Amino acid sequence: MAKDSCSEILEKAYRVAEAHQKKSFLSDAELADKIASVALCAGNRAGARFLLAATLAKVDKPAIDIRKPFIDSYPNDEKADAYGGRAYDEQYVFEFITKRKLPCNSTTAFLTPSFRTKNIVLNMKQNLRGRPAKLYRAILEILDAIQSGKVSASVVLNELVRLLVIERDDRQARLESLKKRLQEEGAELPLSSEDTVRLIEQHLALKHSSRLPVLVVAAAYRAASEKLGEKVLRLHAHTAGDKQSGALGDVEITLLGDNKVVTTYEIKDKPVTTGDIDIAIQKIADGAEVQNYIFVTTAPIDPAVREYANQQYRELGGVEIAVLDCVGFLRHFLHLFHRLRASFLDEYQELVLSQPESAVNQALKEAFLALRRAAQAGE
Protein backbone atom coordinates (compact mmCIF):
# COMPACT_ATOMS: atom_id res chain seq x y z
CA MET A 1 0.00 0.00 0.00
CA ALA A 2 1.43 3.33 -1.03
CA LYS A 3 0.15 5.99 1.33
CA ASP A 4 0.04 8.68 -1.33
CA SER A 5 -2.00 6.42 -3.60
CA CYS A 6 -4.62 5.61 -0.94
CA SER A 7 -4.79 9.19 0.27
CA GLU A 8 -5.28 10.40 -3.29
CA ILE A 9 -8.07 7.85 -3.87
CA LEU A 10 -9.94 9.32 -0.90
CA GLU A 11 -9.25 12.91 -1.90
CA LYS A 12 -10.41 12.21 -5.45
CA ALA A 13 -13.63 10.71 -4.06
CA TYR A 14 -14.07 13.84 -1.95
CA ARG A 15 -13.60 16.19 -4.91
CA VAL A 16 -16.02 14.20 -7.05
CA ALA A 17 -18.58 13.98 -4.23
CA GLU A 18 -18.46 17.71 -3.52
CA ALA A 19 -19.13 18.45 -7.16
CA HIS A 20 -22.12 16.08 -7.37
CA GLN A 21 -23.94 16.56 -4.08
CA LYS A 22 -27.42 16.80 -5.57
CA LYS A 23 -27.50 13.50 -7.43
CA SER A 24 -26.68 9.92 -6.41
CA PHE A 25 -23.90 8.08 -8.24
CA LEU A 26 -26.09 4.97 -8.36
CA SER A 27 -28.97 4.22 -10.75
CA ASP A 28 -30.04 1.26 -8.58
CA ALA A 29 -32.38 2.94 -6.08
CA GLU A 30 -32.52 -0.08 -3.77
CA LEU A 31 -28.75 -0.30 -3.44
CA ALA A 32 -28.52 3.48 -3.04
CA ASP A 33 -30.94 3.24 -0.11
CA LYS A 34 -28.78 0.54 1.52
CA ILE A 35 -25.67 2.69 1.23
CA ALA A 36 -27.58 5.65 2.67
CA SER A 37 -28.78 3.53 5.59
CA VAL A 38 -25.15 2.77 6.45
CA ALA A 39 -23.76 6.26 5.82
CA LEU A 40 -26.52 8.05 7.75
CA CYS A 41 -27.25 5.61 10.59
CA ALA A 42 -27.56 7.99 13.53
CA GLY A 43 -27.21 5.35 16.24
CA ASN A 44 -24.10 3.63 14.90
CA ARG A 45 -21.40 5.51 13.00
CA ALA A 46 -19.02 2.51 12.81
CA GLY A 47 -20.68 1.12 9.68
CA ALA A 48 -19.81 4.13 7.55
CA ARG A 49 -16.17 4.00 8.59
CA PHE A 50 -16.00 0.23 7.98
CA LEU A 51 -17.39 0.64 4.48
CA LEU A 52 -15.00 3.49 3.70
CA ALA A 53 -12.05 1.25 4.58
CA ALA A 54 -13.39 -1.74 2.64
CA THR A 55 -14.15 0.19 -0.54
CA LEU A 56 -10.82 2.03 -0.35
CA ALA A 57 -9.00 -1.31 -0.16
CA LYS A 58 -10.93 -2.68 -3.14
CA VAL A 59 -10.19 0.40 -5.25
CA ASP A 60 -6.52 0.23 -4.22
CA LYS A 61 -6.23 -3.51 -4.90
CA PRO A 62 -9.02 -4.70 -7.23
CA ALA A 63 -7.98 -8.38 -6.94
CA ILE A 64 -8.92 -8.65 -3.26
CA ASP A 65 -12.17 -10.12 -1.98
CA ILE A 66 -13.87 -7.16 -0.29
CA ARG A 67 -15.68 -9.60 1.99
CA LYS A 68 -12.36 -10.70 3.60
CA PRO A 69 -11.00 -7.71 5.56
CA PHE A 70 -9.29 -9.72 8.33
CA ILE A 71 -6.06 -10.90 6.75
CA ASP A 72 -4.38 -12.03 9.99
CA SER A 73 -7.31 -14.23 11.00
CA TYR A 74 -7.67 -16.39 7.89
CA PRO A 75 -6.01 -19.79 7.37
CA ASN A 76 -2.98 -19.53 5.06
CA ASP A 77 -4.82 -21.02 2.09
CA GLU A 78 -7.47 -18.28 2.27
CA LYS A 79 -5.22 -15.26 2.73
CA ALA A 80 -4.29 -14.67 -0.92
CA ASP A 81 -7.23 -12.37 -1.65
CA ALA A 82 -7.76 -11.05 1.90
CA TYR A 83 -6.69 -7.58 3.06
CA GLY A 84 -5.92 -5.71 6.26
CA GLY A 85 -9.09 -3.70 6.72
CA ARG A 86 -7.99 -2.23 10.01
CA ALA A 87 -4.72 -1.02 8.44
CA TYR A 88 -6.61 0.84 5.72
CA ASP A 89 -8.98 2.19 8.35
CA GLU A 90 -6.38 3.50 10.78
CA GLN A 91 -3.74 4.62 8.30
CA TYR A 92 -5.88 6.33 5.69
CA VAL A 93 -9.55 6.61 6.59
CA PHE A 94 -8.88 8.19 10.00
CA GLU A 95 -6.67 10.89 8.49
CA PHE A 96 -9.24 11.55 5.76
CA ILE A 97 -12.34 11.84 7.97
CA THR A 98 -10.43 13.98 10.46
CA LYS A 99 -9.18 16.36 7.78
CA ARG A 100 -12.60 16.64 6.13
CA LYS A 101 -14.55 16.60 9.41
CA LEU A 102 -16.84 13.83 8.22
CA PRO A 103 -19.38 12.41 10.70
CA CYS A 104 -17.81 9.02 11.45
CA ASN A 105 -16.48 7.29 14.55
CA SER A 106 -13.15 8.70 15.74
CA THR A 107 -11.99 5.15 16.58
CA THR A 108 -11.54 2.24 14.20
CA ALA A 109 -14.61 0.26 13.19
CA PHE A 110 -12.57 -2.93 13.37
CA LEU A 111 -12.59 -2.93 17.17
CA THR A 112 -16.38 -2.93 17.39
CA PRO A 113 -17.93 -6.28 18.46
CA SER A 114 -19.27 -7.11 15.00
CA PHE A 115 -15.90 -6.83 13.26
CA ARG A 116 -13.32 -7.55 15.95
CA THR A 117 -11.06 -10.63 15.44
CA LYS A 118 -13.32 -12.21 12.81
CA ASN A 119 -12.04 -15.09 10.69
CA ILE A 120 -15.12 -15.43 8.51
CA VAL A 121 -15.91 -14.34 4.99
CA LEU A 122 -18.50 -11.56 5.24
CA ASN A 123 -20.92 -13.13 2.80
CA MET A 124 -24.70 -13.29 2.80
CA LYS A 125 -24.69 -16.42 5.00
CA GLN A 126 -23.40 -14.48 7.99
CA ASN A 127 -25.53 -13.00 10.75
CA LEU A 128 -23.46 -10.26 12.30
CA ARG A 129 -24.43 -9.25 15.81
CA GLY A 130 -24.91 -5.56 16.35
CA ARG A 131 -27.47 -2.81 16.50
CA PRO A 132 -29.36 -1.92 14.50
CA ALA A 133 -29.47 -5.34 12.83
CA LYS A 134 -30.48 -3.88 9.46
CA LEU A 135 -27.27 -1.83 9.37
CA TYR A 136 -25.12 -4.95 9.41
CA ARG A 137 -27.37 -6.72 6.92
CA ALA A 138 -27.05 -3.74 4.59
CA ILE A 139 -23.25 -3.86 4.88
CA LEU A 140 -23.20 -7.54 3.88
CA GLU A 141 -25.49 -6.81 0.92
CA ILE A 142 -23.29 -3.92 -0.25
CA LEU A 143 -20.14 -6.04 0.01
CA ASP A 144 -21.86 -8.81 -1.95
CA ALA A 145 -22.95 -6.36 -4.66
CA ILE A 146 -19.38 -5.09 -5.04
CA GLN A 147 -17.78 -8.54 -5.06
CA SER A 148 -20.31 -9.90 -7.59
CA GLY A 149 -19.66 -6.99 -9.93
CA LYS A 150 -23.10 -5.40 -9.67
CA VAL A 151 -21.48 -2.12 -8.66
CA SER A 152 -17.90 -0.92 -8.51
CA ALA A 153 -16.14 -0.13 -5.25
CA SER A 154 -15.23 3.33 -6.55
CA VAL A 155 -18.89 4.20 -7.15
CA VAL A 156 -19.84 3.04 -3.64
CA LEU A 157 -16.92 5.00 -2.19
CA ASN A 158 -17.99 8.14 -4.06
CA GLU A 159 -21.58 7.70 -2.90
CA LEU A 160 -20.51 7.17 0.71
CA VAL A 161 -18.39 10.30 0.70
CA ARG A 162 -21.17 12.28 -1.01
CA LEU A 163 -23.66 11.31 1.69
CA LEU A 164 -21.19 12.06 4.49
CA VAL A 165 -20.39 15.48 3.04
CA ILE A 166 -24.11 16.32 2.83
CA GLU A 167 -24.67 15.10 6.39
CA ARG A 168 -21.69 17.10 7.66
CA ASP A 169 -22.93 20.27 6.00
CA ASP A 170 -26.53 19.72 7.16
CA ARG A 171 -25.40 19.22 10.74
CA GLN A 172 -23.28 22.34 10.70
CA ALA A 173 -26.10 24.34 9.14
CA ARG A 174 -28.51 23.22 11.88
CA LEU A 175 -26.05 24.22 14.59
CA GLU A 176 -25.39 27.58 12.96
CA SER A 177 -29.13 28.21 12.68
CA LEU A 178 -29.68 27.39 16.34
CA LYS A 179 -26.73 29.56 17.38
CA LYS A 180 -28.01 32.46 15.26
CA ARG A 181 -31.47 32.27 16.81
CA LEU A 182 -29.92 32.14 20.26
CA GLN A 183 -27.87 35.25 19.54
CA GLU A 184 -30.71 37.15 17.88
CA GLU A 185 -33.21 36.54 20.65
CA GLY A 186 -30.66 37.20 23.37
CA ALA A 187 -31.79 37.86 26.91
CA GLU A 188 -32.35 40.99 28.98
CA LEU A 189 -30.46 39.43 31.88
CA PRO A 190 -27.92 36.61 32.03
CA LEU A 191 -29.38 33.42 33.46
CA SER A 192 -29.18 33.26 37.23
CA SER A 193 -26.76 30.81 38.80
CA GLU A 194 -29.61 28.49 39.74
CA ASP A 195 -31.16 28.67 36.27
CA THR A 196 -27.74 27.85 34.84
CA VAL A 197 -27.46 24.83 37.13
CA ARG A 198 -30.93 23.70 36.06
CA LEU A 199 -29.98 24.05 32.39
CA ILE A 200 -26.84 21.94 32.84
CA GLU A 201 -28.78 19.35 34.86
CA GLN A 202 -31.24 19.02 31.97
CA HIS A 203 -28.38 18.52 29.55
CA LEU A 204 -26.63 15.96 31.78
CA ALA A 205 -29.89 13.99 32.03
CA LEU A 206 -29.96 13.25 28.30
CA LYS A 207 -28.74 9.98 26.79
CA HIS A 208 -25.08 9.45 25.86
CA SER A 209 -23.97 12.37 28.05
CA SER A 210 -21.01 10.76 29.84
CA ARG A 211 -18.55 13.28 28.36
CA LEU A 212 -20.51 16.31 29.57
CA PRO A 213 -19.34 16.37 33.23
CA VAL A 214 -15.76 16.66 31.94
CA LEU A 215 -16.80 19.72 29.97
CA VAL A 216 -18.56 21.22 33.01
CA VAL A 217 -15.30 21.16 34.98
CA ALA A 218 -13.22 22.36 32.04
CA ALA A 219 -15.63 25.22 31.27
CA ALA A 220 -15.53 26.38 34.89
CA TYR A 221 -11.75 26.64 34.85
CA ARG A 222 -11.69 28.27 31.42
CA ALA A 223 -14.19 30.92 32.57
CA ALA A 224 -12.31 31.66 35.81
CA SER A 225 -8.77 31.14 34.58
CA GLU A 226 -7.55 34.70 35.20
CA LYS A 227 -9.26 34.91 38.58
CA LEU A 228 -7.77 31.62 39.71
CA GLY A 229 -4.36 32.00 38.14
CA GLU A 230 -4.87 28.52 36.77
CA LYS A 231 -5.84 27.01 33.44
CA VAL A 232 -6.87 23.74 31.86
CA LEU A 233 -3.67 22.15 30.63
CA ARG A 234 -5.36 19.53 28.47
CA LEU A 235 -8.50 17.51 27.92
CA HIS A 236 -7.84 13.94 26.92
CA ALA A 237 -9.83 12.05 24.31
CA HIS A 238 -13.08 10.59 25.56
CA THR A 239 -12.04 7.10 24.45
CA ALA A 240 -8.47 7.18 25.77
CA GLY A 241 -7.64 5.44 29.02
CA ASP A 242 -5.25 7.04 31.50
CA LYS A 243 -2.47 4.54 30.73
CA GLN A 244 -2.88 5.07 26.99
CA SER A 245 -2.83 8.87 27.18
CA GLY A 246 -0.34 9.21 30.03
CA ALA A 247 -2.92 11.31 31.88
CA LEU A 248 -3.55 11.46 35.60
CA GLY A 249 -7.23 12.19 35.01
CA ASP A 250 -9.78 13.61 32.61
CA VAL A 251 -9.06 17.30 33.27
CA GLU A 252 -5.61 18.51 34.27
CA ILE A 253 -5.13 21.96 35.79
CA THR A 254 -1.88 23.93 35.88
CA LEU A 255 -0.80 27.37 37.07
CA LEU A 256 -0.75 30.14 34.45
CA GLY A 257 2.68 30.31 32.85
CA ASP A 258 3.48 26.74 33.86
CA ASN A 259 2.86 23.23 32.50
CA LYS A 260 3.06 21.35 35.78
CA VAL A 261 -0.20 19.71 36.81
CA VAL A 262 -1.32 20.94 40.24
CA THR A 263 -4.88 19.61 40.26
CA THR A 264 -6.32 16.67 38.40
CA TYR A 265 -9.99 15.81 38.01
CA GLU A 266 -11.24 12.30 37.34
CA ILE A 267 -14.85 12.30 36.15
CA LYS A 268 -17.17 9.37 36.89
CA ASP A 269 -20.72 8.66 35.72
CA LYS A 270 -20.93 5.88 38.32
CA PRO A 271 -20.28 5.73 42.09
CA VAL A 272 -16.70 6.34 43.21
CA THR A 273 -15.32 3.36 45.15
CA THR A 274 -12.48 2.84 47.59
CA GLY A 275 -10.79 0.96 44.74
CA ASP A 276 -10.83 4.16 42.68
CA ILE A 277 -9.23 5.98 45.61
CA ASP A 278 -6.55 3.29 45.87
CA ILE A 279 -5.68 3.70 42.18
CA ALA A 280 -5.31 7.46 42.72
CA ILE A 281 -3.08 6.78 45.73
CA GLN A 282 -0.90 4.52 43.60
CA LYS A 283 -0.57 7.20 40.91
CA ILE A 284 0.57 9.69 43.55
CA ALA A 285 2.94 7.13 45.06
CA ASP A 286 4.38 6.52 41.59
CA GLY A 287 5.41 10.16 41.38
CA ALA A 288 2.38 12.19 40.33
CA GLU A 289 3.25 15.62 41.76
CA VAL A 290 -0.24 17.02 42.26
CA GLN A 291 -1.69 18.99 45.15
CA ASN A 292 -5.29 17.90 44.61
CA TYR A 293 -6.73 14.72 43.11
CA ILE A 294 -10.46 15.30 42.77
CA PHE A 295 -13.15 12.85 41.75
CA VAL A 296 -16.30 14.40 40.30
CA THR A 297 -19.27 12.07 39.94
CA THR A 298 -22.83 12.26 38.71
CA ALA A 299 -23.78 9.33 40.97
CA PRO A 300 -24.58 9.36 44.70
CA ILE A 301 -21.53 9.54 46.97
CA ASP A 302 -21.03 6.95 49.70
CA PRO A 303 -20.06 8.84 52.91
CA ALA A 304 -17.62 6.03 53.76
CA VAL A 305 -15.81 6.52 50.43
CA ARG A 306 -15.63 10.28 50.98
CA GLU A 307 -14.19 9.72 54.46
CA TYR A 308 -11.68 7.19 53.13
CA ALA A 309 -10.47 9.78 50.61
CA ASN A 310 -10.21 12.41 53.34
CA GLN A 311 -8.06 10.12 55.50
CA GLN A 312 -5.28 10.00 52.91
CA TYR A 313 -4.14 13.61 53.34
CA ARG A 314 -1.47 13.01 55.99
CA GLU A 315 -0.41 9.68 54.53
CA LEU A 316 0.23 11.38 51.19
CA GLY A 317 2.25 14.23 52.68
CA GLY A 318 -0.29 16.97 52.00
CA VAL A 319 -1.82 15.77 48.74
CA GLU A 320 -5.58 15.92 49.07
CA ILE A 321 -8.03 13.48 47.52
CA ALA A 322 -11.66 14.60 47.39
CA VAL A 323 -14.94 13.26 46.03
CA LEU A 324 -17.40 15.87 44.75
CA ASP A 325 -20.88 15.80 43.27
CA CYS A 326 -20.87 17.24 39.73
CA VAL A 327 -23.92 19.47 40.15
CA GLY A 328 -22.78 20.50 43.63
CA PHE A 329 -19.39 21.46 42.19
CA LEU A 330 -21.07 23.58 39.52
CA ARG A 331 -23.49 25.25 41.93
CA HIS A 332 -20.66 26.24 44.28
CA PHE A 333 -18.55 27.54 41.39
CA LEU A 334 -21.36 29.67 39.95
CA HIS A 335 -22.16 31.29 43.28
CA LEU A 336 -18.49 31.80 44.12
CA PHE A 337 -17.86 33.38 40.69
CA HIS A 338 -21.33 34.81 40.19
CA ARG A 339 -20.24 37.46 37.69
CA LEU A 340 -18.74 34.74 35.48
CA ARG A 341 -21.92 32.69 35.08
CA ALA A 342 -22.53 33.89 31.51
CA SER A 343 -18.87 33.25 30.63
CA PHE A 344 -19.20 29.74 32.01
CA LEU A 345 -22.17 29.02 29.73
CA ASP A 346 -20.34 30.39 26.71
CA GLU A 347 -17.28 28.27 27.48
CA TYR A 348 -19.44 25.18 28.02
CA GLN A 349 -21.26 25.77 24.74
CA GLU A 350 -18.00 26.16 22.86
CA LEU A 351 -16.63 22.93 24.33
CA VAL A 352 -19.83 21.00 23.61
CA LEU A 353 -19.98 22.13 19.98
CA SER A 354 -16.29 21.44 19.34
CA GLN A 355 -16.32 17.84 20.58
CA PRO A 356 -16.07 15.00 18.06
CA GLU A 357 -19.17 12.92 17.37
CA SER A 358 -17.82 10.00 19.41
CA ALA A 359 -17.68 12.19 22.53
CA VAL A 360 -20.74 14.45 22.13
CA ASN A 361 -23.17 13.48 19.40
CA GLN A 362 -25.11 15.84 17.18
CA ALA A 363 -28.34 15.38 19.15
CA LEU A 364 -26.65 16.52 22.37
CA LYS A 365 -25.19 19.56 20.63
CA GLU A 366 -28.52 20.62 19.19
CA ALA A 367 -30.28 19.87 22.48
CA PHE A 368 -28.02 22.21 24.43
CA LEU A 369 -28.64 25.13 22.09
CA ALA A 370 -32.40 24.49 22.23
CA LEU A 371 -32.36 24.16 26.03
CA ARG A 372 -30.33 27.36 26.44
CA ARG A 373 -32.67 29.25 24.13
CA ALA A 374 -35.70 28.05 26.10
CA ALA A 375 -34.05 28.94 29.41
CA GLN A 376 -33.19 32.43 28.22
CA ALA A 377 -36.76 32.88 27.06
CA GLY A 378 -37.98 31.92 30.51
CA GLU A 379 -39.70 28.77 29.29
Describe this structure in words.
The protein has 379 residues and is of the alpha/beta class. 54% of the residues lie in helices and 8% in strands. It is built from 16 helices and five strands. It has helices spanning 3-19, 29-39, 46-60, 85-100, 133-147, 153-185, 193-204, 212-223, 225-228, 242-245, 274-285, 303-310, 312-315, 326-336, 341-354, 362-376, and strands spanning 230-235, 251-255, 261-268, 292-297, 320-325. A five-stranded mixed beta sheet has the order 1-2-3-4-5, sandwiched between helices. The longest helix is centred in the middle third of the chain and has 33 residues, at 153-185. The protein is globular, with a radius of gyration of 24 Å. Mean pLDDT is 90; it is low at 238-245.
Short synopsis of the structure:
The protein has 379 residues and is α/β, with parallel strands linked by helices. The chain has 16 helices and 5 strands.
